[in-house]
From TrEMBL:
Keyword Signal set for record: no
Protein name, entry field: Molybdopterin molybdenumtransferase
Entry keywords, A to Z: Magnesium, Metal-binding, Molybdenum, Molybdenum cofactor biosynthesis, Transferase
Catalytic activity: adenylyl-molybdopterin + molybdate = Mo-molybdopterin + AMP + H(+)
Family annotation (Pfam families): MoCF_biosynth (PF00994), MoeA_C (PF03454), MoeA_N (PF03453)
UniProt similarity note: Belongs to the MoeA family.
Cell membrane found in the keyword field: no
Organism the protein comes from: Streptomyces boetiae
Length: 471
């Protein structure tokens, strides 16, 4: 069976829906379009000791994880002139190791959301910075009944009276107000009655409803380690701990180049031309993965324009769509060779998306080449671009989480498959239809991609899930 026929069969594995055609003139995974030749990819050699017929890149079953889907005995990986295409896990790890974190910079708190801490967040003050009331009521000294001290009550933000409370005295206090000296507890407002300058109620336990100074942390305590993502809660913690600015790894700047003369950018497909699906989604995918997208440019099949765009980019990551094969109008590899770029990954043993590539441009900027089919491009984004963005932001490579399949998923004889799944309940993954390389309907409804090992996985098998970014 041809590679393309096998891909079409896999697209039907979880539903009766026929796969959509590849974009005219573009290379679909497993089959070059007319006039184009398949890319041959250098890769790592087989792992020592790999069983004959088994993909050496596939993960072994982990101890304590019974039922994890494992590769079945299959033909050896494709060999192109002695170069074996790297497996999916190896390609991800290669991308994550390909770059160093971006230099840190200081940002005000209101601009730091989504960035990564470049250094540990340590408290600049005790939290709370002083003893405060946890409730509305009265600050009391000793047992009751209590005389109400003269003067106004204490509000949050007001200075406490200079004279300390003495035993048998009380003063009204609001939540968050600084406790006066001499106070031993707070009597809640619902527990006491004040009349004629006297407060009556049950005597609270010493320290009751008081938030003591340093209850949450002391000055110098580490609140968050370096490499933590700055969430809204983390920014609130930083503000409470006394920060106005933070040292962060900046969001990696990305530039997207859309290739292909067959693409339309508005209206319905006509005259053999198709709508561009990659332009509207690639930038938002990169943003969701942590990048700052500078621009999305439409280059077409113009080698000189592509060379100028890549050579002149000031981004931290360049992402191209299409042109990853080696046909007469697939100019990407020729442009990379002309620029003196080094190919780090040239094809990956994964379906869809195996023609994807990763190159290092002169000066060290990475370039990710995505295949032209939409789901194949998503596979390339999550396989190569996501690990690169994590590394640039000084974040670890996320590990897929395990789940059990609700039904069988057919596999490729040699390659990993990435299959859109819905997660109806924790620990369960339901494969979705419309999973062909040119389709987006499945991934649009998915919450994750299931990593299906060579040979496939049965219903009930444990597989790894690659969670999809939500926004």
């Amino acid at each position: 069976m041809s590679g393309d026929a096998f891909e079409d069969a896999l697209a039907l594995a979880n539903g009766p829906h026929p796969p959509g055609p590849a974009a005219p003139g573009r290379s679909a995974p497993g089959r070059p379009a007319p006039g184009r030749s398949p890319a041959h990819a250098p890769a790592a050699p087989p792992a020592p000791g790999a069983a004959p017929g088994q993909d050496p890149e596939a993960p072994a079953q982990a101890p304590g994880e019974p039922g994890l889907a494992r590769p079945r005995r299959t033909p050896p990986p494709e060999d192109h002139g002695g170069l074996v295409t790297p497996g999916w896990d190896t390609a991800r790890a290669t991308a994550h190791r390909a770059v160093r974190p971006l230099p840190p910079r200081r940002l005000p708190l209101d601009l730091a959301l989504g960035h990564t801490l470049a250094a540990p967040l340590t408290a600049l003050t005790d939290l709370p910075a002083f003893d405060t009331s946890a409730m509305d009521g009265w600050a009391v000294a000793g047992p009751g009944p209590w005389r109400l001290a003269p003067g106004p009550g204490l509000l949050a933000g007001s200075a406490p009276p200079s004279a300390p409370l003495t035993d048998g005295e009380a003063v009204p206090i609001a939540t968050g107000a600084r406790l006066p000296h001499g106070a031993t507890a707070v009597l809640r407002s619902e527990h006491g009655t004040a009349a004629d300058g006297e407060l009556r109620g049950p005597t609270p336990q010493p320290g009751a409803d008081i938030r003591p100074r340093g209850q949450e942390c002391r000055t110098g305590a580490e609140l968050l380690p370096a490499r933590s993502a700055l969430t809204p809660a983390a920014l609130g913690l930083a503000a409470a701990a006394g920060y106005d600015q933070l040292a962060v790894r900046p969001r990696p700047r990305a530039e997207v180049l859309i290739l292909g003369d067959e693409l339309l950018f508005r209206g319905l497909p006509h005259d053999g031309r198709v709508r561009d699906a990659l332009g509207p989604m690639t930038g938002p995918w990169l943003t969701a993965l942590g990048a700052q997208v500078l621009v999305t440019r439409r280059i077409g099949d113009d080698a000189d324009a592509l060379h100028e765009a890549v050579a002149g980019s000031r981004a931290d990551l360049v992402v191209t769509t299409g042109s990853t094969a080696a046909g007469p109008v697939d100019h990407l590899r020729g442009v990379l060779e002309r620029l003196g770029a080094q190919l780090l990954v040239s094809g990956v043993a994964v379906r869809p998306g195996h023609p994807m590539l990763l190159a290092e441009l002169p000066g060290g900027t990475p370039l990710v080449g995505l295949p032209g089919n939409p789901l194949a491009a998503v596979s390339g984004l999550l396989t190569l671009a996501a690990p690169l963005l994590n590394a640039l932001a000084d974040r670890p490579l996320p590990e897929p989480r395990p789940a059990r399949l609700t039904e069988e998923v057919r596999g490729h004889p040699r390659d990993t498959r990435l299959v859109p799944v819905a997660c109806p309940e924790p620990g369960r993954a339901r494969p979705l239809s419309y999973a062909g390389p040119a389709m987006l309907r499945g991934i649009a409804a998915a919450s994750a991609l299931a990593v299906i090992p060579p040979g496939g996985a049965a219903s009930g098998d444990r597989v790894r899930l690659l969670d999809l970014p939500l926004a």
